[in-house]
Design a protein that fits this description.
single chain; mainly alpha; 15 helices
Length: 344
């Protein structure tokens, strides 16, 4: 599964959903095409410079028409986390004329209000490093600009989440918003195992994204600013220090890719797309009769909504094997093995 939508598919989607809603989305698509560039950083900046009403947030934020324009990522939230953002319609036949909400309940935390969130903000970190001449850092930044709009970088989180931290860094926001008693449930439900390490007392501890040991045997005693913040030591600013910017981008890009692979796998299982099945669900028609597979319901109940802590994706896959029946494991064996090998 590709990490980013292509313009042809997006154009077809906007045309069809616009027709069903009695809207003409051709102007939106034309303006979005104007943001094209061979350079991912330039493309991202062009997109962000568009008037707010001319584009939609890639994470699906917004209400009414703005929220509806990014139906595809909202479908991911609905399928994987039972997000109930669709407001009741007057007539059952007017499905595509229903409004969408910025915040709604999901399977997490007894239906607490949650909304879309871009986990790792590219613009926040780019502003501090945009004048660099370092070729390796520039390459990492281009990769991050490309990945920032991918589904591996999107999630749901509490209403009002962003007001708690001065700058937009996912590790710091997790530390501020989710106390230890809430963290395990949130990490498991939204597939965030790369952002934490399991402690000896069956809890999760958040990892610093600027820590050079982020992808390895994590050392929480590193002296980068975010590691100090996560140890509750006072720091003057949240900006990523120049000495660890490469580590930060390497870690962010690595975590987004890996979570995207896992999300693609879970979408396939949730939609019943078995081994060697090349069908692609049409996001413009599928919510009307959405039912996730029994296999995914088991995984959500027994693995993701469990109070267990997992030491990474491999431990999660082992627990998934136990949750599924032999027939279900055989049905999804090829795609489970493929994803597991990519995430080792």
């Amino acid at each position: 599964m590709k990490y980013q939508f292509d313009h042809v598919r997006l154009h077809n989607f906007l045309t069809e959903t616009g027709r069903k809603r009695g809207k003409n989305y051709s102007d939106v698509f034309a303006k979005l095409k104007d943001t094209n560039s061979d350079d991912p950083v330039e493309r991202f900046l062009n997109y962000k410079q568009q008037p707010k009403n001319d584009v939609f947030d890639l994470d699906g934020s917004g209400e009414d028409e703005q929220g509806f324009l990014n139906w595809m990522i909202r479908e991911v939230y609905r399928v994987l986390w039972d997000w109930k953002d669709l407001l009741p319609g007057k007539e059952p036949t007017e499905f595509f004329r229903r409004k969408v909400s910025r915040y709604a309940g999901s399977c997490y935390d007894n239906g607490a209000l949650m909304g879309p969130e871009t986990m790792n903000s590219f613009r926040t970190t780019y502003s501090a490093a945009k004048d660099t001449k370092d070729a390796e850092l520039l390459k990492l930044m281009r990769c991050s600009a490309k990945l920032t709009g991918c589904m591996g970088n999107m999630t749901l989180t509490y209403k009002g989440y962003n007001r708690y931290v001065r700058l937009d860094y996912w590790d710091c926001k997790l530390h501020k918003q989710y106390p230890s008693e809430k963290l395990a449930g949130y990490v498991n439900t939204f597939f965030l195992w790369d952002y934490v390490h399991a402690t000896d007392n069956n809890l999760y501890s958040i990892k610093s994204l600027s820590n050079p040991t982020f992808q390895e045997t994590y050392n929480s005693k590193e002296n980068d600013g975010h590691s100090r913040f996560l140890r509750n030591e006072p720091i003057r600013e949240f900006l990523i220090e120049e000495s660890v910017r490469k580590d930060y981008y390497k870690n962010v890009n690595w975590a987004i890719r890996r979570r995207g692979i896992f999300i693609a796998l879970m979408l396939s299982i949730a939609l019943g797309v078995a081994n060697n099945d090349k069908r692609i669900a049409d996001p413009a028609c599928h919510s009307e009769s959405l039912r996730v597979s029994e296999a995914y319901a088991k995984i959500m109940r027994d693995v993701f909504m469990s109070a267990e802590t997992y030491s990474g994706y491999d431990a999660v896959f082992s627990r998934i094997d136990k949750a599924l029946s032999r027939e279900e494991r055989e049905k999804y064996d090829d795609i489970l093995k493929d994803a597991r090998d990519k995430l080792r």
